[in-house]
Amino acid sequence: MAENENAQPQETPAQDAAQEAQPVFQLQRCYLKDASLEMPHAPEILLEPQQSAPQVDIQFEVSQRVLGNDLFDVTVRGTVTVTAGEKTVILVEGKQSGIFAIRGIPADGLQHVTNVLCPSMVYPYLRANIADLMTRANLPPVHMPEVNFEVLYQQRLAQAQAEMAAQQQPANS
After folding, report:
1. Which structural domain, as residue segments, surrounds residue 104?
2. DSSP summary character for residue 164
3. What is the pLDDT of residue 96?
4. Is residue 172 part of a domain?
5. What is the mean pLDDT for each group of 10 consecutive residues in the chain (173 residues)?
6. How much is the pLDDT for 134?
7. Is 75 helix (H, G, I), strand (E, B) or coil?
8. Separation of CA 126 from chain center
9. For the chain, how many structural domains are there in total?
10. Is 6 helix (H, G, I), strand (E, B) or coil?
11. CA-CA distance, 71 to 69, in Å (whole number)?
12. Measured at the alpha carbon of residue 60, what is the angle toward residues 134 and 30, in degrees to the nearest 5?
């Protein structure tokens, strides 16, 4: 027998093209892009008895950037501000990013992936990092809430459509 039993089957150009056409969505790396913590009225505010419960404000946003070669950088920024009366107890901000390999997905699907799926994967890391920063400042952590990025994306789409309709209406009047 002259056949090599361990020989690998040769891929044909059609098989190569089929593999290229397969959609790809993969997290390559998740990293903490930026973090800051400010306690502008410390240590005095920590020593004062508080008359009421502190107020907590949580804000976040999602941004994307094309890196090229089917790579996308998706960042979720979160800001937690805790105030007591008129004074800020703590201000914590973090930017958690992920580098994603994405290809073979149509443009409308790509928008959904970068605005919903990618932030959903990155956000838990941001939540943990912000809670950790607050704990390291020797304050009780504020746990950022779970976020439904699908609902937020649909709200942004509806708002953009309403703005376009409002801009077109005066032109038609």
Report:
1. 23-139
2. H
3. 98
4. no
5. 56 58 93 97 88 91 93 97 92 98 92 95 96 93 91 91 85 55
6. 94
7. strand
8. 8
9. 1
10. coil
11. 5
12. 75
The token pair at 137 is 């400042």
Cα–Cα distance, 99 to 28 (Å, whole number):
5
CA dist 163 → 108, 115, 150, 166 (Å): 19, 19, 20, 5
Query: Is the residue at 51 inside a domain?
Result: yes
H/E stretch holding 11:
none
- Which tokens go with 113? 């992936």
- 139: its two tokens: 């304050």
Q: Is residue 155 part of a domain?
A: no
Q: Check residue 141 and give its pLDDT.
A: 87
**Domain annotation covers residue 117:** yes
The token duo for 103 is: 């290809």
105, 130 in Cβ contact below 8 A? no
CATH code, domain carrying 96: 3.10.420.10
